[in-house]
TrEMBL record:
Coiled coil: none annotated. The lineage of its organism: Eukaryota, Viridiplantae, Streptophyta, Embryophyta, Tracheophyta. InterPro entries: AB_hydrolase_fold, Peptidase_S10. Belongs to the peptidase S10 family. Gene3D superfamilies: alpha/beta hydrolase. GO terms for biological process: proteolysis; secondary metabolic process. It holds the Pfam family Peptidase_S10. Keywords: Glycoprotein, Signal. This is Serine carboxypeptidase-like 18. The keyword rRNA processing does not apply. It comes from Vitis vinifera. Residues 1-33 form the signal peptide. The keyword Membrane does not apply. One of its GO terms (molecular function) is serine-type carboxypeptidase activity. It comes from the Eukaryota.
Length: 469
């Protein structure tokens, strides 16, 4: 007997089901799977393995750049890297600090910026996953109106969930030694993420993380300590006089944060200090501040509209400021061919910003000293590195909060060198298997790897492979 022909109705419903299933499968794939990038405009064919993509965490679509170790990816450690802000894209860390590329800043004739290979990349000795977080940073976006709001607490949890999902999708990296790193404001987020990982390990959560430690560079750690450290730093570097420093200490009782409005003597001293430092470039006190006084007084700063600036460094050398370097990232990352090569979803981000100043973000964690103290009970390797010209997060603050952890100094203060030249100073602390290395980078600003990439590469390479600095 001949088979019964399906009715039009059943064929319709079956076809509809298949189409819906296909949409679901494609959407799921688009929301999580990454793509290998083999070519980048301005660079050409890549000489390293780059994957970009999104991971869905709630309503957030978090964008990432993953660069596999150019050394031995089967054994080299695996790093999750966050950039500060909050709201600064991890592309900033990739291109200006620790990645295998840099802009050809000194030979820019206009148009799409050219990218060059960079020799002293941390990816030469580690696989690094650069994450645009929190939502609203870089190419990360929300699928709902309510999802754009975030906070320290939310961002840390979303970052942990992102890492968990990413490693489940890339299981070959699970056995590798895992580190979490970041700089500047990520000094708040990194230890919170590490605590989530530690708690997951203690609770035997799947997947099992092979956590080894964490790194914080020029880290915001405690708002009050950081504020107080700026006055101490200004005195140590002779930015204010001994007399003004002593007066401020006496009038403010050594506390320059949350000053009582009725304490007029303290406010007066702080006003004088502010007058002494207000025209300095806080990221590096010896570099020019990014202000045009002449010959173009109408264009004050690249922070306003960096895309409006046409750069030619040799001709503008006497007017150079560091923000000129940043302008190239706006031009490059907003180019349609670049976004297509990076597999950025069309229309999700209208304008890419190196640092998004308009985030809907709540700073709900004022200090993570207690988090560091909690983590100090675990067997972890920690690196705290700072530039000694940084007035954004001055090094005396790092010294202070590390002291509050009550660790034992096992390797006292000493210089560390690269090619026989002093690169900074270091001190090592330890307690019950928790090993914290503190290092300054001589002459560096905020953040240190941006100023001294070669020296910071050797610092990182030695530390992550358990060699003394």
């Amino acid at each position: 007997m001949a088979a019964k022909r399906p009715s039009n109705s059943s064929m319709f419903h079956g076809g509809l089901f298949l189409r819906l299933l296909l949409v679901v499968l494609v959407s799921a794939n688009a929301a999580s799977a990454g793509s290998i990038v083999e070519y980048l405009p301005g660079y050409g064919n890549l000489t390293f393995k780059l994957e970009t993509g999104y991971v869905s965490v709630g309503d957030s679509e978090l964008f990432y750049y993953f660069i596999e170790s150019q050394g031995n990816p089967q054994t080299d450690p695996f790093f999750l890297w966050l950039t500060g802000g909050p709201g600064c894209s991890s592309f900033n860390g990739l291109i200006y600090e620790i990645g295998p590329m840099e802009f050809d800043i000194h030979n820019y004739p206009g148009g799409l910026p050219r990218l060059l290979p960079y020799k002293y990349a941390w990816t030469k000795t580690a696989s690094i996953l650069f994450l645009d977080a929190p939502v609203g940073t870089g190419f990360s976006y929300s699928t709902s109106a309510d999802g754009w709001s975030s906070s320290d607490t939310d961002s840390a949890l979303e970052t942990y969930e992102f890492l968990r999902k990413w490693l489940i999708e890339h299981p070959k990296y699970l056995p590798l030694q895992l580190y979490v790193g970041g700089d500047s404001y990520s000094g708040i987020i990194v230890p919170l993420v590490v605590k989530h990982i530690v708690d997951a390990i203690d609770e035997h959560t799947v997947p099992r993380f092979n956590l080894q430690g964490y790194l914080v560079g020029s880290p915001t750690t405690d708002e009050n300590i950081n504020t107080n450290a700026k006055v101490v730093f200004a005195h140590r570097l002779a930015l204010i006089s001994d007399e003004l420093y002593e007066a401020a200490k006496e009038n403010c009782n050594g506390n320059y944060a949350d000053v009582d409005p009725s304490n007029t003597k303290c406010l007066s001293s702080l006003g004088e200090i502010q007058h002494c430092v207000k025209d300095l470039f806080r990221n590096d006190i010896l570099e020019p501040k990014c202000v045009f006084e002449s010959p173009e007084p109408t264009r004050r700063s690249l922070d306003e509209k960096p895309g409006d600036f046409i750069l030619n460094t040799p001709k503008l050398e006497e007017f150079w400021c560091r923000n000129f370097n940043y302008a190239l990232s706006y031009i490059w990352a907003n180019d349609e061919s670049v976004q297509e090569a990076l597999n950025v979803r069309v229309g999700t981000v209208k304008y890419w910003s190196r640092c998004n100043k308009s985030l809907s973000y709540t700073k709900d964690v004022q200090s993570v000293i207690d988090v560091h103290r909690y983590l100090s009970k675990k067997q972890l390797e920690v690196l705290v590195e700072v530039g000694d010209r940084d007035l954004v997060v001055p090094y005396p603050g790092a010294v202070e909060w590390i002291r509050l952890l009550n660790l034992t100094i096992v390797s006292p203060w000493r210089p560390w060198f690269v090619d026989g030249e002093i690169a900074g100073y270091t001190e090592k602390h330890s307690q019950n298997g928790y090993r914290l290395t503190y290092a300054t980078v001589k002459g560096a600003g905020h953040t240190a790897p941006e100023y001294y990439r070669r020296e910071c590469y050797y610092m990182f390479k030695r530390w992550v492979h358990y060699y003394p600095l």
